[in-house]
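Exercise 7. Given the encoded structure of a 489-residue chain, write a plausible sequence.
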């Protein structure tokens, strides 16, 4: 009963994690192209050449030393260079999505495929035409594209020569990129997201218990501010080009719980929601910084570049829908934690009521229901769950079949929870599972952390036939969609 006619069932990917073809048809590199593979235990590295010519590696977010430059080095393997080759195989993959009955496919446009350096005034035609063909193919199959304009892939040139999002000029470069997308794909694409998991910039700080300096907080809030302004301007441009456009924010959604009923934990938990979740959502949905901003900035001596004109832009550029990823919940406490877990950019106490994935992510469908209900009350906007899924090891049987009942269980429970939230009034209009086809993991760079309904025969070193095959979950999801969420068995 929960899902209305026309509910957007589908799946989601991001350009840098599926496309490959990293240096084809004029595409410029992005940060992921100088990022090695890793694992849950071994973080991915960023490769560079130091001023003296020696090869060095950096941690994510670590600043490039004076005189150094990012570089692809022969001694490393870069999984995003090949992805799962979707750049060349999109027709086959979209046909498989259509076979499952997808109503919506969430994908992103690689910024550096359209603007190889990011600061050009004219786009790279080959890049523009590539996505036109992809959208036409989706339309042919009656699949509505949902397009993320920025999914973690600022052109490397902008990172190196402009200091990335610390520089206000990025706002204009981004808006030019977004405007190009709105103009070129008018009539083909109607649903857009400005920034993927925009709140990661702040949520990521202190991951794994690392010390976070005031300067790091300053940079994070400054980068976010420029992204908010860029997003707000893009929303206005998008509406002006086509009033039919529906443009959303995309928040990394984590449901936080207090570990104890100690009022200090309750307050700490509330403040975690404010910093990690509401801060970005409020700016993008309500058009102004929330009242707790002052406290957040003062706590960390943050003074950002923010003009009265910027605040006007934020007011004028609020989003049309609230979208978010949801994988897990997290536990917050002021007490000493004896049993810790970390996953998806957060660290917290273990929740004894939940099961954890092989990568330490808490599986918590009720948390999805809770999240949807909270956001429904707060923003009164249509919502889409734009990412949800289970990263797991899959085993291919001798006959080629893949029995991924653990994935089916995870998705079934989350769809049921989403249904309960809708029954309780939440205006959720769509659900695009993450990694509907196996892809390169964003956090670890692994392929073996698989999310797909569609298996891709490739390993972490890029070896394999790259052939596609259907997992059990493929047939299951097909049934779910055909019954509009009624048949979850
Ligand atoms: C989100 C990102 C995605 C995706 C997903 C799964 O944070 O938006 O790009 O990768 O998480 O994470 P991972 O790939 O690290 O398993």
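Solution.
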């Amino acid at each position: 009963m929960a899902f209305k006619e026309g509910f957007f069932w589908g799946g989601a990917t991001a350009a840098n994690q599926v496309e490959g073809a990293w240096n084809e048809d004029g595409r410029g590199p992005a940060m992921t192209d100088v990022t090695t593979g890793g694992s849950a235990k071994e973080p991915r590295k960023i490769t560079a050449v130091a001023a003296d010519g020696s090869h060095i590696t950096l941690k994510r977010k670590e600043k490039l030393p004076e005189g150094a430059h990012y570089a692809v080095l022969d001694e490393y393997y870069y999984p995003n260079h090949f992805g799962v080759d979707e750049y060349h195989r999109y027709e086959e993959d979209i046909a498989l999505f259509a076979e499952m009955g997808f109503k919506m496919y969430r994908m992103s446009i690689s910024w550096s495929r359209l603007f190889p350096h990011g600061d050009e005034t004219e786009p790279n035609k080959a890049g523009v035409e590539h996505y036109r063909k992809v959208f036409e193919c989706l339309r042919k199959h009656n699949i509505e594209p949902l397009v993320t304009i920025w999914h973690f892939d600022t052109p490397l040139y902008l990172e190196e020569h402009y200091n990335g999002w610390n520089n206000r000029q990025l706002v204009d470069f981004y808006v030019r990129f977004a405007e190009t997308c709105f103009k070129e794909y008018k009539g083909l694409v109607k649903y857009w997201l400005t920034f993927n998991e925009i709140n990661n910039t702040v949520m990521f700080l202190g991951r794994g218990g690392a010390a976070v300096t005031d300067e790091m907080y300053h940079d994070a809030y400054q980068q976010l501010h420029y992204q908010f302004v860029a997003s707000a301007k893009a929303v206005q441009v998008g509406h002006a080009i086509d009033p039919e456009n529906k443009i959303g924010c995309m928040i990394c959604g984590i449901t936080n719980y207090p570990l104890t009923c100690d009022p200090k934990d309750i307050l700490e938990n509330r403040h975690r929601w404010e910093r990690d979740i509401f801060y970005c959502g409020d700016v993008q949905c309500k058009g102004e910084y929330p009242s707790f901003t002052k406290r957040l900035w003062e706590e960390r001596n943050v003074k950002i570049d923010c003009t009265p004109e910027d605040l006007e832009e934020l007011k004028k550029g609020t989003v049309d829908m609230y979208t978010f990823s949801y994988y897990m919940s997290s536990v917050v406490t002021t007490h000493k934690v004896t049993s810790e877990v970390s996953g998806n950019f957060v660290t917290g106490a273990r929740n004894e009521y939940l099961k954890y994935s092989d990568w330490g992510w808490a599986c918590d469908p009720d948390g999805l229901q809770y999240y949807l209900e909270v956001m429904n009350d707060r923003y009164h906007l249509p919502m889409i769950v734009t990412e949800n899924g289970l990263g797991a090891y899959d085993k291919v049987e001798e006959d080629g079949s893949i029995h991924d009942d653990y994935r089916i269980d995870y998705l079934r429970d989350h769809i049921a929870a989403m249904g309960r939230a809708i029954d309780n009034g939440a205006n959720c209009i769509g659900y695009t599972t993450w990694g509907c086809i196996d892809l390169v993991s964003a956090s670890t760079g692994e392929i073996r952390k698989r999310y797909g309904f569609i298996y891709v025969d490739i390993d972490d070193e890029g070896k394999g036939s790259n052939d596609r095959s259907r997992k059990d979950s493929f047939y299951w999801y097909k049934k779910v969609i055909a019954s509009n969420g009624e048949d979850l068995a």
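Remark. The two ends are 15 Å apart (CA to CA). Students should compare their own answers with the one above.
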